[in-house]
Write a structure and sequence with these properties.
Helix content: 10-25%
CATH topology: 60s Ribosomal Protein L30, Chain: A
Largest sheet: 7 strands, mixed
CATH superfamily: RutC-like
CATH architecture: 2-Layer Sandwich
Distance between the termini: 40 Å
Number of domains: 1
Length: about 325
C-alpha cells in the first residue's frame, strides 16, 4: 500500500471541491443508479420503484403529479454500502448518508431523533467526509401535540441531545417537513463533504439556533444556508418560509407568504455574496401544506422566477401550523 506524505493529505482535504450536480429527472431509478458517478437517487410519493441499492431513497411525500427523481451526481466514481442502520455512498469528496428510525422501537420522536443524530455523529467521526453541508428530516404528523408536546418541538429536543457537539460552532443547512403516512418512521438523510462549508445566516431573520424559549425547549439546530467548499460558488439553502425576525407573517395568505419567502431567499443570496438570479442551475423544492394550493404556488413561482428554474412541488406539513409553504434549494453563482 502506498502512503502519501501528510502534506499531500492536507492538500487533498483543503483543495476546493467540484460542485455537486443535482437535477430533477424523468429517468428511471435503475438507469440513474447504473451510472458510476451517481451519489444518490431520491424518489417521492407513491413511486413503485424499489431498489436495494444504498443510494436509493424514497421520501413519502406526495406531489401534484408523478414526481421526477432527484439525482445527485459526483465527479468521481462512487462507492456505496451499509454500516448498520446507515446507508451511504461516497466518491471521496462528497457522501450521501441516510437512515430510517422506527419511533416505536425507541419510545417516540424525541428518542428517535436523538438516536438518528447520535448515529450520524458516530458515522462522521469515522468518515473521510465528516463535514455535514445539508440535512433533511421527514417525520409524520409534525404539528401534532400542543405546546412543548408538539412533535416538531420534541424532534428539535431530541436532535439537540443527539448532536453531541458534532457541528462545533457551525450548524449545517437543514429542512424538517411533516409526512402524513401514519408510519411514525423518522427519515433523515444528509450530504457530507471532505472539507467544511461556511454557514450563512439571513439578516432578515433571527438565527434559528437563537430562537427564544416560546418556540420550544430546544432551538432548531440549523443554519439558514451553507456555502459549499467548492471551486465555483454553490449555496445550499435551508427550508425557508415567511418568517421575519422570529415571527410568522401573513397567516392564511398563500401569495403573501410566497413573496415573503422569496424575499428571504434573496436576502440569503445577498448575504452569501451571490448576485446571480435563480436560474436553470438553481433547483428549488417547494413544500405546500394544502394540495389545492399547489397549482396556485406553481403559477406564482413561474410568474416571479420565469420558466428556467427547476421546480419540484411536494405536499407536506410545515414546522409551524400557520405556515402554508416552505422553499429550499441550491444556487450556483
Amino acid at each position: 500500500m502506498t502512503v502519501r506524505p501528510s502534506h499531500a493529505l492536507d492538500s487533498a482535504v483543503s483543495a476546493p471541491l467540484a460542485p455537486l450536480r443535482v437535477e430533477y429527472s424523468s429517468a428511471s431509478a435503475t438507469d440513474a443508479l447504473a451510472q458510476p458517478d451517481t451519489l444518490a437517487v431520491i424518489g417521492f410519493g407513491d413511486t413503485p420503484q424499489v431498489h436495494a441499492d444504498p443510494r436509493w431513497l424514497r421520501v413519502r411525500l406526495r406531489s401534484e403529479a408523478p414526481a421526477p427523481l432527484e439525482i445527485w451526481r459526483a465527479s468521481g466514481r462512487v462507492a456505496h454500502g451499509r454500516d448498520g442502520d446507515v446507508a451511504w455512498s461516497s466518491d471521496g469528496a462528497y457522501a450521501f448518508v441516510a437512515l430510517n428510525v422506527d419511533e416505536a422501537a425507541l419510545g417516540g420522536i424525541s428518542s428517535a431523533a436523538q438516536h438518528a443524530y447520535a448515529t450520524l455523529a458516530r458515522w462522521s467521526r469515522a468518515s473521510a467526509t465528516p463535514h455535514f453541508l445539508r440535512i433533511w428530516n421527514y417525520l409524520d404528523a409534525i404539528n401534532d401535540g400542543q405546546g412543548d408536546t408538539e412533535r416538531y418541538r420534541q424532534f428539535c429536543a431530541g436532535r439537540a441531545a443527539g448532536m453531541d457537539g458534532m457541528f462545533g460552532s457551525s450548524y449545517p443547512a437543514a429542512t424538517a417537513i411533516g409526512l402524513r403516512d401514519g408510519q411514525r418512521v423518522l427519515q433523515v438523510y444528509a450530504l457530507a463533504a471532505r472539507a467544511p462549508g461556511c454557514a450563512v445566516e439571513n439578516p432578515r431573520q433571527v438565527n434559528a439556533w437563537r430562537y427564544p424559549r416560546q418556540y420550544g425547549p430546544a432551538a432548531p439546530g440549523f443554519a439558514r444556508a451553507m456555502r459549499a467548499p467548492t471551486a465555483t460558488p454553490q449555496l445550499y439553502i435551508s427550508g425557508t418560509a415567511a418568517i421575519v425576525g422570529h415571527a410568522s407573517h401573513h397567516p392564511e395568505d398563500i401569495a403573501a407568504q410566497l413573496d415573503e419567502t422569496l424575499a428571504n431567499v434573496r436576502s440569503l443570496l445577498d448575504a452569501a455574496g451571490s448576485h446571480a438570479p435563480l436560474d436553470a442551475q438553481s433547483p428549488l423544492k417547494v413544500y405546500v401544506r394544502h394540495a389545492p394550493d399547489m397549482p396556485v404556488v406553481r403559477g406564482l413561482l413561474r410568474a416571479r422566477l420565469g420558466d428556467a428554474v427547476p421546480l419540484l412541488l411536494l405536499e407536506g406539513d410545515i414546522c409551524r401550523r400557520e405556515l402554508l409553504l416552505e422553499i429550499e434549494g441550491i444556487h450556483a453563482g
